[in-house]
Each structure stands twice: as C-alpha cells, then as structure tokens.
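Standup, Tuesday
Yesterday: got the pipeline producing structure tokens again.
Today: sanity-check two examples.
Blockers: none.

Example 1:
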Amino acid sequence: MVVVPAMVEGAALTVALFPFLRHRFDMYRWDRDHRSQHVPASTDHSEALTVLLPVWNEALVIERKLANLADQGVEARLVLIDSASTDATVRLAKAWLAQHPNAFADHDIIEMPVRKGKTAAVIQALKAIGETTEQPGGLICMTDADALLERGVLRRLMQWFADPMIGAVGALPRRQGARAEEALHREAWEAMRIAESMVDSTPFLEGSCMMWRASALAVDDLFDQANADDAQIATSVRRQGWRSIVDPQARFVDVAPETAGEQRRQKIRRAQGLQRLLLRERRRAGQRSQGVFGRIVRRQVHFHIAAPLALTVAAFSAVLRWGFVGLYGWPATFTLANSMHLGLAGLEAAFLVLWWRSRQGKSSGPLSLIGQWLASMELLGRALVTTARGRSLHMWEQHQDVRQRMSDVEV
C-alpha cells in the first residue's frame, strides 16, 4: 500500500523539478554565449518620449516621484493618469507641476471618475496618448509612483531602441528592506529574465520602469480585468515581432513591504496576474513557431502553474503514504516499500525544514535556493486557489508602510 503513493509522489516531484533544472542549464548557456552582445546599440540615440505615470492615492510620494523624473535630464512629455484617488494626489501633482513649469516638455493629467484597476488605467492612458500624439511612433516609458529611478536610467533605456528589433526594455529593482527569502527570490528571477533576454525575449518586465515603442504594442491585447500589465505589454510586444528584454545596468529603487505577511500578499497578487496571463497566452505566445521565446513561455507556464500543482499532488501522496503507515504499520525491513518510505521521509523532512526557514526569512546556506523555491510554490499555489475561488486581485490595497518609508530612500 505504501509503494503506489510513493511512486506517485516521486513522479510528481520529478515533474515539478526537472524543467527548472533544464532551464537553469539553458540559462548558463545563454549567459555564456550572449552576454558580450547584450549591450545597448547606441550611446546617443534619442526619440520622442512620453512618460506614463499611473497613480492612485500616492499623496505621500507623488512630489518626490515627479522630482525624480525631472532629474533624469531627458526631455519628455508626462501623462499622469489618476484612478479616482481619494487623497490629495492630484492636487499635489498639479501644484508641483505649476511650480516647476520646465520639468517636462509638456504634461497631461487624466482623472478617472471611478477606480477600475491599474491595467484599465494604463489602457485608457495609452489610447489617449495615441489620440493626442501628432506624429505616430516614439517611445513610452511606464513607471510607478513608489519607484525612484537611478540617475540616467531613461537615457540608458532609450539607447537600446537604436536596434530596430528591440520593442521593449525594462529596468531591474534595487529593493530596500527585503528579507533574505525575498532577496533570494528576486535574485533568482532576475537571473532568469536576463538570460532569457540575452537569447531572445523575456515575457516579464517590471512595470516600475519599462520602455517600449508605441508602434510595437497592440493595446487591444491588454486585459483590463487582470493585473500584471507590465508582463502583458512585454508579451504583446514580442508577439508583434519585436524583442522584449531587461537591461541589468538600468536600475530603480523601491521598498519591500515591512512584514512577511505583506510581502506574501504582494507576491500572491503578482503571481495571480502572471498565471492568468500565461493561461491566456500559452497557445499564441507558446507556439513552437515563436522559436526560443515559445519554449520560454511554455516553461513559464510550467513554473507558475504546472509545478505548484505537481507539488500539491506530491504533498497529498505523502500524506496518503503516511496514512497507510499509520494504519498498517511500518513496512518490513529490506523491502522496496521500506526503502522508498525511508528515502521519501528523509527528503520530506529536509524540504519542510528548508521551506519553513525560507518562510521565516532565514538562510539555509547553499540549500537556501531549494527553500526559496518551495516557498514560491506555496504562494503560486495560493494564487491558483484564489483564482479558482473567483477572486481577482487586479484592484488591491496599497502597502502604506512602503509609501511612508520612501522618504528615507536614497537614489
């Protein structure tokens, strides 16, 4: 009775883990073969630039954000879209812009009467930009109010577009206040995005700071009832035939939520958005005709959806196996059932310890990556359950502690 659930558990663990190992090996090859080529195509490229700033109740940070954008030293038009803020965000933004009339080449403030979520706001702003731009084309940079760009980031991102194949470029975060588990999570996923960018494209960019060709995005591809608008944009750009990449030298600074619970809430929200995107795009973006990018998308479907489901199957099989042991006793010594049960029991104990330590933000030395993977699978599983229950997280409550601590951030 022990052998069958043990075999199911072992098979489920293999299904969950093997594609990660394969992708890590491919990441090593892509980095080795393409790193020297992953540089901007120019140092003096310039195009008309529009900075898109979606906001909602950002009174604590809006003035510093506007100053940060103005300090970039790039002539740009600012389009600020407010999702029906209930605080002083719009009033403070208007006052700041009036006091600094030369901060931007031009500016528009769009006030939505009802909050519909960030993606809906982005769609409305992009349509407005398209209607009011005299000459089609140019670049659009989207950035969040709670992210401060390091000096020269906008100009750096712009240089990539001297390459006619580049459709979108994203910056990467220098996150302050992150726990050990969060830092390791970020490091692992950033390495993945960089390697994918080197060989072809990554489907995931950071909405805190990303830039794309206005002509490369099909706005109708964006789904306003889901979040992960940044990943939606990156995937749409790649499906139109351009590359979507990250620049490891372009950085912005943001602040991690203060408590472990708030960090998990943030990750679950982000995970749900990516899962819903991958479910919608797995047949189009994941086609073999998409080349390496199609393979990347198929693997991301596995990482975000199939792997947590397989790990859930493994966990239920482990509980069933232990239930059989409780009912019928420990398997006889020197039998296949005993060997399988002992081996899996040791593996389960190690996994539980690593998962718990990662969840508590503690390091486990060289095994920390396994703990971080298990903790990520838990959050991805919780995101799947949230979606299955019919709850969408595309409209979320802010992490107020992040805004309050932004005043201490140094860029």
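Example 2:
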Amino acid sequence: MYVDHLTLRDFRSWPELELDLGSGITALVGRNGQGKTNIVEAIDYLSRLSSHRVASDAPLVRQGAAQAVVRAAAVRDERRAVLEIEINPGRSNRARINSSPLPKARELIGVLRSVVFAPDDLALVKGDPGDRRRYLDDLLVQRTPRFAGIRADYDRVLKQRNSLLRSASVARGSREAALATLEVWDDRLVDLGAQIAAARIALVADLGPVLGKAYEAVARGAHRDDATTAYQCSFAPEPSADHEALAEQFRQTLAARQKDELDRGLTLAGPHRDELACSLGELPVKGYSSHGESWSFALALRLASYDLLRSPDVGEVEDPVLILDDVFAELDSGRREQLAEMIAGAEQVLVTAAVAEDVPPQLRERRYVVADGEVRNG
C-alpha cells in the first residue's frame, strides 16, 4: 500500500496542503522549521493514531484552530481508498473510510501501515524503559490492531487500581474495604497484563532473526549474532508466551507485593514496568556502546519492524510506508549507502532532509522543496 495523495487542514504548521506523492521514493528537502517533518508525521499518525514526536494530540492542531484533518488517498492492489482522521483535542477523534464514519477512531489503525526512523530514535537504546515498551506496543498495534484496545483497557485499569491503592494508603482505617475492591481490579489487571506480556514476548522472539540481519547490514564488520534483545518481565523471571502461566505468575507477584503497594500507593509489577534489554555481544547497548553502534542498533530495530510488518504472517503481504525523517545527516557516507541499498526497492519511501546532498542518489527519484509554507517540485 502507498499514499497517492495527502490532504492536510490545520495540521501543525499547515493551514492547507494538497500533495501528490505516489509509489516509489519521494524526498522532501528544505531548511529546518519549514514543515517537512509535519508532512510525514501526518501520514504516520494516520496509520497508528499516534505521533512519533509528541505524546498527546493537542500539539498536532495548528495554533488558533479547533481541529485538524489528515486525509490520504491510499492505493492497495490498484484499489483506492480515502482514509481520514479528524483530530479533536479534548474530545473524541473521528475517522472515516471513503467518507463513511467508523464507530471508533481506532478502527482505522492498521489500514495503512508505516515505519518511521527519526533522530529521536536514539532513545530506543539510550532512553528510559518506557521508550522501548512504546516501541514494542506500537509495533504490536500495527501487526494486530485489536491490541490497541487491550493496551487502552490495561492503562485504564492500572489508573483505577493506583487510585485505589493511594486511597487505601491514606485512609488506613478503611483498608479492609479497599482490599475487597482491589481483588476486582486485580482480576482484570492480571488478565490484560498477561495478554500484553505474552504478545510482547512472542514479538521479541520474532524480532530476533530480522534484527540480527538488519544490524549486520548497517554496521561495518558486524555479525548477525551481535545484536540481541531479551524481554525482562517484572513478574516472571523466565517468561514464556503462555498467557495462563503469565497470569498465574502475575497474580502471585501482586499478592506477594501487596503490602509494599499499599504503603507506596502504586502498582509495582506489570507490563508497565517491564523492559526490553538491548545488547551488543555480552554488553548492554545503553552505557557501553559507542554513538555509532547505538545509531546502528536503533536503525536495525526500525528496519526489523519494517521486515516484520511486510511478512506473510501479518496478513496480506504488503510493504509499509517507510519514512526516513532527517536521518541521513546523522549517518556517515558508508551507512547512508548501505541504508539506501536496503530500502530502494520498497513500495513507498518518504525521505526528509535539510540538505539535498545528504540524500543518497538512489533515493532522489522524486523531489519536493519545502519552503515558506509551500511545497514545490525541486
């Protein structure tokens, strides 16, 4: 699938934008602050209903506007569909396909798939565990869109459970009543948490081979066994992807840590406290690897995502839209050429760059110049 035409209204810096794209490679070139990233961010948001730059929707709406609209004409097997999301901060977003409203906006997730690699992706290996959990969950949502609902339900139950724990820690005299209510929330938390952990564990197992292959391709002198990941579960020392086994371990951990949780007013175990360990050889990437090695590992994680999303077991075989947002300036000439060779055959590649010369020759099929609120042929 590829985006043939993009329409923006009051999205970020763009009051209005109509842009023809098409399959193949498109480079958006212009000085920083001209709105290049806003364009590719809109396409990524349409695929995941989440931004790779901000955690909430409010910054996506142009200052002074009440809502933003992203609309894309997407083509799959010569069939054309118009996908649209209306972004309403503080209210429910609205989604449509071919002008027909969807019951829930999140039903749009997965219709169009995308993979973004951006400078901030260095946080995948150098940032907090939350960055790596988000990477896994975003990939899971694109592979299995119903996972978005599971994750949202878990976050809601976790919030309610934490609120109950805080109330119980303050009103110690009513702790017995709180414990009775806590059991109800525990049942739901355990079921949802075990589903999330099981899905993540299975995903990490699938990532292994493609991650090693990608790292070998982008890092000089590397071997595919060098780059590895491991899922570290906060309630299962040796986790498996078995839902029932994980649920029992999660329940036992909550019971064992109940006193500490009541004292602290916080849920101390669950998928929200798990970690994706990233290693090169026998050492963790974070704190031990060079800047270049860290970049290569982060890039390999994104390329592994791309390979998994286009694999037959995800459903219909199709390339996700591959977005390279201002990454070539961070790579030396050798890595630029290696990356360009790997992705040149993708169905659709969108590249942004501040300097035209940063874009490898293989990725200059179609070029637009973005400047002064306009996009023109370059």
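Quick observation on example 2: The radius of gyration is 22 Å. The domain at 119-314 is CATH 1.20.1050.90 (Glutathione S-transferase Yfyf (Class Pi); Chain A, domain 2).
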